[in-house]
Amino acid sequence: MAHSVAEVDILENGAGVGMAGGSAYQVVQWLAMRGEVDTAVQLYEDLSAAQRERLLREAMAASVEERKGLVEVLRRARDFNGAARLLQGSGSEAEAASLYEQGGNQVEAAEAYLRSGDIARAAEALERGGALERALELYRGLGARESMAQCLARLGRPLEAAVVYRELGNVHAEVEALCGVPVDDARHLDSVLRICTLLDHEGQTRRALALLVDTLRGSEDARSDPAVLAEQARLLKRVGRDTEANEVLARLPGSSPQPSTVPQVARPASATSGYGYLKAIPIFGELSLDDMKDLYRVAQQVLIPEGATVLEKGTQGSGLFVLLEGTVDVFSGPEQDAKRLNTLGPGAYLGEISLIQDGLTSAQVRARTAVRALRITRAGFQHYLDTHDGAALRIYRLFTRNLAARVRALST
Q: What integer best gives the mean pLDDT of the chain?
C-alpha cells in the first residue's frame, strides 16, 4: 500500500515527527481512520517515550470518539496504561480499569472501577497495589469480612484481624493473627492466653504448652502473672505432667486459680493444624513465608461426617481439601459397584487442580470415617491470587512445570 510523503518520513525516521507537516497524533489518528491499524501501531511503537506522552496529551484534548479510535492502536502496541487514559471520561470506565490492570497500574485501575461502580474489584485492585487502608474501608463498606481480616493482618493490626476471624469462626486464622501481636504490646499476654485456649480446644495442647513455656522464658511479666502460671499448670495436667503442674501451682500467690472453663475435648493432643500439609503441596512450593501464611488464613476447617460425599464425579470442582484427620475413599464413579481406586488419610489433598483450571471432577470421593479437613474454595483462592501478584506468578509457574512433566510422562 502506498503511503504519503509525511507517512514515509515518519515511518523511516521517527525522530522527524512534526517536521513532515503533521503531529504524531494527527498521523496515527489518520492511519487508524483509514483502517491501517498495523501501520499506526508500528509508528506508535517507534516513537520515543517523550513523543508518546506528547501524543497522549494531544489526544486527551480531542473528542471522545476520536480518542476511542486510538484505543485499539495503543492496545495492540501494548501501551495499556495509555489506552486506559484515552478511555477516561468516555463512559467506558470498566474497560479502562481492565487496561490499567494489564498495565500494572493497580491504583488507577481501582479509581476507574470506583467510577464504574464496581466497588469489590476496586477494593481488590487497591489491595493488590498495596493501598491496604483504602482497600480495608471499601471491604468494610461491602461487609466482606474475610477480606477485611486479611487486610488488617497485612497492615500489622493483628488484634483487630483476630476479632474478625473469631466472628467468622476461623480458629486457625485467629491463632495466626494473634501470633503477630508484638511482645511489647500491653495485650501480648492476653493474646498468648487466648492462643493457648484455642490450640488446646483444637487438640494441639502440646503446641499451646510450648508457646506458653517460650513466653515465660522471654518475659518477666509472664513469670509473675497468675493467669499465665495457672494456664501453664492446666496445660501440664492436660498432657499428664501432674507433678510439674503442682509445682507451678505452688508458686501462685494467694488462693488457688479458678478452674478452667475450656471444655475437655476428645481430640488427641497431637492434632495437626494443617499448615505443614498445606505447605507441602507442590504448587505452593515456592511461596514465601508471608504469602504462605496469608494463604493459610484463607483456608477454613471443615468437618465431614462419615459416608458423606466430598467430591462428586462430573461436577464442577469446588476447591482444595487437605485431610487433617480421618480417611476418604476414591471411587471411579458414583455407582454402588464403582471400583475403589484409593484410600487417603491425613496429609493427602484433593481438588488442587480446580483452584486453577475450570473442569469437572474426575473421581467420586466419599468419607470413610468422620473427616476434619482444611478447605480453600475457588472463590477464596481466586481472591488470594488477585491480591498476591508475586505468589500467583510462582504458583502458575509450578503448576505449568508440573503439568508439562505429566504430559511428558504420558508421551513416553
A: 88
Which distant-in-sequence residues (6+ apart) come within 8 Å of 171 by Cβ? 165, 198, 201, 202, 301
- 362: nearest Cα among 327, 395, 343, 334: 334
Quote the domain boundaries for residue 349. Answer: 275-411
Are residue 305 and residue 387 in the same domain, yes or no?
yes
My answer on whether 244 and 308 are in the same domain is no
Report phi then psi at 116, rounded to 5: -85, -10
Domain count, the chain: 3
Q: Is 264 exposed, middle or buried (0-12, 13-18, 19+ CB in 10 A)?
A: exposed
Helix (H) or strand (E) holding 364: strand 364-367
315-363: pLDDT as tens digits: 888 899 999 999 999 999 998 888 999 999 999 999 888 888 877 888 9
d(CA 381, CA 1): 50
Summarised one tens digit per residue, pLDDT across range 271-316 is: 678 999 999 999 999 999 999 999 999 999 999 999 999 999 988 8
Of the residues 48, 71, 103, the one at which a domain ends: 103
Nearest to 71 by CA among 103, 96, 97: 96
Helix (H, G, I), strand (E, B) or coil at 17: coil
DSSP 220-245: HHHHT-HHHHHHHHHHHHHTT-HHHH
CB 86 within 8 A of CB 59: yes
- For residues 21 and 6, give the distance between their C-alpha atoms in angstroms, rounded to a whole number: 7
Name the pairing type of β-strands 364-367 and 328-331: antiparallel
